[in-house]
Design a protein that fits this description.
Blueprint (H helix, E strand, L loop, with lengths): L2 H9 L12 E5 L3 H14 L2 E5 L2 H10 L4 E5 L1 E2 L2 E2 H9 L7 E6 L4 H8 L3 E4 L5 H9 L23 H15 L5 H18 L2 H15 L5 H15 L6
Parallel strand pairs: 1-2, 1-3, 3-6, 6-7
Antiparallel strand pairs: 4-5
Keywords: Phosphoprotein
Protein name: Response regulator receiver domain-containing protein
InterPro entries: Bact_response_regulator, CheY-like_superfamily, Sig_transdc_resp-reg_receiver
Length: about 240
């Protein structure tokens, strides 16, 4: 083996400072804000990231390459994240690390029951927790050599990504929706609110979910959501 080739191989091996160097992480997440957080965590950890915003997009990615880890949001626009986790877990060529994620801690049970190796509760901001969640399920020979300092750093996603999510919500609720679409809005809003630490938006999402589950008219809940989203997009409320 030449010195040049050895140098190239060593350059892709994980280090204590970048313990996920050489890994590719597929993030199946419809929220741009939540995905931006994971992108920053991957960047700090040395991993490459690919994003799919729905199950169909994830299937297209997986047909082309095999990632080292897949992080799956439990609520996606075209189906349940649990179904994708189950499919990945039962595959003959199983991805080394499968993690579920959600803003609702109760979703952890569903993720693990479907075959996930672990669970990341939103907001995902701790560098150390993210790195450990991935490393805990990798083979020992893919871990960095030597002692690894546990970082206390936390990441702060770009607020522009949050505005993109809020604009998406505003666009969807501006048009007539069926019950499935309303339930998706409630789930998506809950996820965004948890990632952004926005308690008012989170409460509005709960109110909409309650209306859907109890088969009540969602008009009042949707009106409150519209007002809250508008204040954030116009800069007159929390952002």
């Amino acid at each position: 083996m030449t010195d040049e080739l050895t140098s190239r191989l060593n350059a892709r091996r994980p280090t204590p400072e970048r313990p996920l160097l050489g890994l590719t992480v597929l993030v199946v997440e419809d929220s741009r804000f939540a995905c931006e957080a994971i992108r920053l965590l991957c960047l700090r950890s040395g991993a490459r990231i690919r994003r799919a915003d729905c199950i169909a997009s994830a299937h297209r990615h997986l047909a082309v390459y095999r990632p080292s880890a897949v992080i799956v949001d439990m609520g996606l626009p075209d189906g349940s994240g649990a179904d994708l986790i189950r499919e990945l877990a039962e595959s003959d060529q199983r991805v080394p690390v499968i993690l579920g994620t959600s803003g609702e801690s109760a979703a952890e049970t569903d993720a693990l029951a479907a075959g996930a190796d672990g669970f990341l509760e939103k907001p995902i901001t701790s560098l150390a927790s993210f790195q450990q969640a991935v490393l805990a399920h990798l083979p020992p020979d893919e871990h960095p050599r030597g002692p690894r300092m546990v970082s206390a750093d936390r990441i702060d996603p770009d607020p522009i990504a949050l505005r993109d999510d809020l604009s998406h919500i505003a666009s969807v609720i501006a048009h007539p929706m069926d019950s499935d679409q309303i339930e998706y809005v409630a789930q998506f809003l809950s996820s965004v609110a948890q990632s952004a630490g926005d308690s008012d938006l989170a409460s509005a999402a709960v109110a909409l979910q309650s209306a859907v589950h109890n088969r009540l008219p969602p008009r009042n809940a949707l009106g409150e959501i519209s007002d809250l989203v508008d204040t954030r997009l116009t800069g007159t409320g929390p952002s």
